[in-house]
Write a structure and sequence with these properties.
Elements lengths: L20 E6 L2 H9 L8 E4 L7 E4 L1 H4 L9 H7 L4 E3 L3 H16 L5 E5 L2 E5 L10 H16 L3 E6 L2 H10 L5 E3 L5 H6 L11 H9 L5 H5 L3 H8 L3 H7 L16 E12 L2 H22 L5 E8 L4 E7 L7 H15 L6 E9 L23
Parallel strand pairs: 2-4, 7-8
Antiparallel strand pairs: 1-6, 1-7, 2-3, 5-6, 9-12, 10-11, 10-12
The chain binds thymidine-5'-triphosphate and magnesium ion.
Length: about 375
């Protein structure tokens, strides 16, 4: 048997000694915001997403979960499970505003805040800014402040690494807290079904089941050679996770310079109608990313790549951050209008928002696999 994986971290500074890590995750986030803002929805099964034939739930209230409704479920299926399900369209501007509020609360306790999405973040409170000392106490203070300042509930997991803190925040949802103390990690993980592990999606869990691995204990019984043979680059992560070990640091996000999207076409295009239609699609994708990451920026740049690979860019900056999709779209269309008609067809179109203000909150990369990735609508 090969030696177990070494203790090197994925970054230049390995974690030394035990850390105190909190994972905070809002409960049924989008649905709870809708229930908060529309009291008639409280206590009712509520789904957020499109209710058309191709609609999908972004999430649903805990009342709807009792019927089996879940995130990413087709709306048609959800309605079959729960005929009284009430649908609401997502209001990303409101979710983004709440996300900023909770971020501010986190930052009162530590600068080491790593957002994973609008509604969840890791906090390293090994040395907290207020000198409180107890991570559990800090987690309770944060939950209390979130409730008082946003009217919403959050669950928290407290432990000595990210992997365990994330598992813990899920343990007593909604409106719960769970603490996994040093020495308890391996035991906690042993009892869990592997599908609860961060980064193991339904397909990963199926593959494991086929190999006789259902729980953390089953996983811990496999040696590193076996894991490498079946799970390749995930092996080291799984080997450690099965033992409650995770060496990844909480990384405060470095400000990003820009956010955007681009598309290369199957064939070169030049007609104004086609270009405008394509621009609309790119606006939709880019704006979704902007809202998801709660980024605020002041410069919109349109990039076109000609058939001969030469680039053409046009940019416009605003005094205040671009505040709405309509404003973003209007600027993008004005930039395109400036360059029409085109001298030659183009093969690629891209759009970015840059000059981002301070707190960029783009989701951090996931440790393994893609199954934990959030899908929109
Ligand atoms: P989650 O934290 O995964 O879910 P949640 O907050 O709705 O519920 P829980 O109490 O279990 O934490 O995701 C946060 C938000 O992200 C969620 O409210 C809606 C959005 N989302 C999607 O848009 N698509 C998805 O597939 C998932 C999982 C979430
Ligand atoms: Mg959540």
């Amino acid at each position: 048997m090969a030696p177990p994986p070494d203790d090197s971290d994925d970054g230049p500074e390995p974690v030394r000694g035990l850390r105190k890590v909190i994972h905070v995750d809002m409960d049924a986030f989008y649905a709870s915001v809708e229930q908060r803002d529309e009291p008639a929805l409280r206590g009712k099964p509520v789904a957020v997403g499109g209710d058309g034939p191709r609609g999908v739930l972004t999430t649903c209230s805990y009342e709807a979960r009792r019927f089996g409704c879940r995130s990413a479920m087709p709306s048609v299926t959800a309605r079959r499970l729960c005929p009284d399900l009430i649908f609401r369209r997502p209001r990303f501007d409101v979710y983004t505003a709440v996300s900023r509020q909770i971020r501010e609360i986190f930052l009162d306790y530590t600068p080491l805040v790593e957002p994973l999405s609008l509604d969840e973040a890791f906090l390293d409170v090994t040395e907290d800014s207020k000198g409180i000392g107890s991570a559990t106490r800090i987690a309770q203070l944060i939950r209390g402040r979130i409730k008082a300042e946003t009217g919403l509930t959050a669950s928290a997991g407290v432990s000595y690494n990210k992997f365990l803190a994330k598992l813990a925040s899920d343990q007593n949802k909604p409106d719960g807290i769970c603490v996994i103390r040093p020495g308890e990690g391996a035991q906690f993980v042993a009892a869990l079904p592997v599908r609860r592990f961060f980064g193991i999606g339904p397909r990963g869990a199926e593959k494991m089941a086929a190999l006789g691995i259902e729980t953390g204990a089953d996983l811990a019984a496999k040696d590193i050679d076996f894991l490498r043979q079946h799970f390749g680059s995930q092996a080291d992560y799984l080997y450690r996770a099965a033992r409650g070990i995770d060496l990844r640091r909480v990384k405060a996000n470095r400000p990003r310079k820009s956010l955007g999207a681009e598309r290369t076409f199957a064939r070169d295009i030049s007609s104004g109608t086609e270009l405008r239609a394509t621009l609309e699609k790119i606006i939709a994708i880019t704006w979704e990313r902007i809202e998801r990451s709660a980024a605020q920026g002041r410069t919109v740049t349109l990039k076109l790549k000609h058939a001969d690979f030469s680039n053409l860019t046009r940019a416009r900056s605003t005094a205040q951050p671009v505040a709405s999709r309509a404003e973003f779209a209007a600027i993008a269309h004005a930039l395109l209008d400036e360059v029409l008609p085109l001298a030659q067809p183009i093969r690629l179109m891209g759009l970015t928002l840059s000059q981002l203000d301070g707190d960029d909150d783009a989701p951090a990369p996931l440790p393994v696999g893609g199954d934990a990735q959030l899908s929109l609508l």
